[in-house]
Description:
The structure is a single chain. The chain is an alpha+beta fold. Helix content is 23%, strand content 31%. It has 1 helix and 7 strands; from the N terminus they run E-E-E-E-H-E-E-E. The strands form 3 sheets. Strands 6-5-7 form a 3-stranded antiparallel beta sheet, with helices on one face. Strands 1-4 form a two-stranded antiparallel sheet. Strands 2-3 form a two-stranded antiparallel ribbon. Strand 5 and strand 6 (97-99) form a beta hairpin. The longest helix has 28 residues, at 49-76.
Amino acid sequence: xxxxxxxxxxxxxxxxxxxxxxxxxxxxxxxxxxxxxxxxxxxxxxxxxxxxxxxxxxxxxxxxxxxxxxxxxxxxxxxxxxxxxxxxxxxxxxxxxxxxxxxxxxxxxxxxxxxxxxxxxx
Length: 122
C-alpha cells in the first residue's frame, strides 16, 4: 500500500524529437535540412497517495479555520447562515493543494472542485 501512486498531469508538458529518418541512434552527424518533428508530450508526475493525503488533510484543516470564521461572521452580520462553499484547488506534482483564484485556467492545471454543504442539525 505504501507504493500506491496517483499520476498528476502538470501544465508543463515534456517534448520529444523524432528525426525524419527515423534514427534514434543519437549519431553525431546531423543534416541541417532534416524534417525532424518536435512533439509535445503530456506527462504525469507520480505522487505517492500518502503525500496527497497529507496535502489534502493540511489544506482542509486550514480551510476549516476560514470556514468557521466565515460562518461566525455571516451570523454576526445579519443572522445569515453559511450553507455551501465551493472551492477549486490545484494539485501540484508534489501533492500540495493551492486555492485557485479568479482568472485561473482550471483546464490547464490538475484541479479538483471541492463542494462543502452545511449539515442541518435536527
